[in-house]
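Researcher: Next sequence.
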Amino acid sequence: MREMQFRRVWPERRLFERAIAILDKQPRVPMSPGCRDSDGAVLLCAGAALLAAGVEASGSGPARAAFERAIVGTGGETLFYRAIDALGWRGWIVAGAIRPNDACSDAERKPRMLSRLRDLADEVCGPAVSEDAA
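Model: Next structure:
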């Protein structure tokens, strides 16, 4: 991706839910920022999945697909931080998603990061309201 120009999107609960869905479909969650599996499919870390959800919300599905392909290529880490800036996000995503992602072992990373994204959604957006309570 050359220059990323996305509409700034506040990280709403729906973006966390989308990131969780992205990770849930993957067989595993890799170290930051992501990688390709043996079949060439893109696997995103938790932070990159959240950014991909933001890119999708600010642009389109094709923009998200291009972002995902680029993030696992050469210079992906630089692109990762440029996307944070382009979306208007900053330190909370680094502390909230990247560090815990990379601190986990491969075996425990996916369940821990799915849980972490749910907790991060509550921290950023407030507790979820269940339909029963509404």
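Model: The CA atoms of residues 37 and 87 lie 27 Å apart. Strands lie at 34-36, 42-44.
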